[in-house]
Design brief:
The protein has one domain: Ribonucleoside hydrolase-like (Inosine-uridine Nucleoside N-ribohydrolase, Chain A). With 322 residues, the protein is an alpha/beta fold. The radius of gyration is 18 Å and the shape is globular. A 10-stranded mixed sheet has the order 4-3-2-1-5-6-7-12-10-11, sandwiched between helices. It has 13 helices and 12 strands. Keywords: Glycosidase, Hydrolase. It holds the Pfam family IU_nuc_hydro. This is Nucleoside hydrolase.
Amino acid sequence: MKKKVIIDCDPGIDDFLALLLALNSEELEVLGITIVGGNVDLNTCGENALKALELTNSLHIPIYLGNDKPLYKKLEKAENVHGADGLGNTNLPKVKNGVLNYGAEDFIIETLHNNEKVSIIALAPLTNIAKAIMKDKSAFENLNEFVSMGGTFKECGNCTPVSEFNYYVDPHAADYVLKNLGKKVHIIGLDVTNKTVLTPNMVEFIRMIDGKLSKVVSEITKFYGEFYWRFDKIIGSVINDPLAVGYFIDKSICKGFSTYTEICKEGIAEGMCIVDKNNLWQKEHNSIILTEVDAEKFLKKFINLLLKDKEEEVEKYIGLLF
């Protein structure tokens, strides 16, 4: 059976790639996409999600706009990473027949109440999720799994020395979700995502195979790759959010440990994950921190799903990359 899932996101280049991955997967049934302001403003994120739906013939899947700013902070965007349009300044055409609904929190609550075994993959600041829990915590008793791309354990941060972007943008929401969700949060943080790099060779492979999504993937990752070279001297793009989708589909891709985690909400360590790995606080575990990743297995799955319309060619030549 397909896994039923809501994807909460702020597209963003890597969110966009994650949506393409999820929508191309035969293992997932995406019930809806909820949008929060993050990488770029709320409406731009919503328009980008529509573009992902159009590219995958999935415009029947509803999109719901949610919060345009964090719980208690001003929104800090990442246009330097994703471009003013969120997709590497590619200015892909606007979807003419796309619909953006309002009410992300209500959609999450109603979907959890009315369906069995629904999970959430959160690829963005957790504002929508926190507000949905505040509005109706009982709905989350029906939640199957919760996977969050955010945070970092031992790796340095990517927007402050100690903080990852999603949890830094809304640390109050991240902390609230961890303390109130009622399920362990699977945290796909920088400890694993930094090891999943889409290299120029992989992008060129995707372009040369020339599948339906090849051109757009090649175009939007140019800006992304240039950012990572300028700031981290990485040759390629760290594809954070797609790994969260890959892990949700196949848990063998990442390994980690169960623990209690909370988020520093202010001060010099704002957004930092405080991870009680040695159980010193003796608190009930609320998280699974992922620390190991089979990057090759994930990247092969990622490329295969993006190019599933060219399955035979990919199978024949993908060995050239690994």
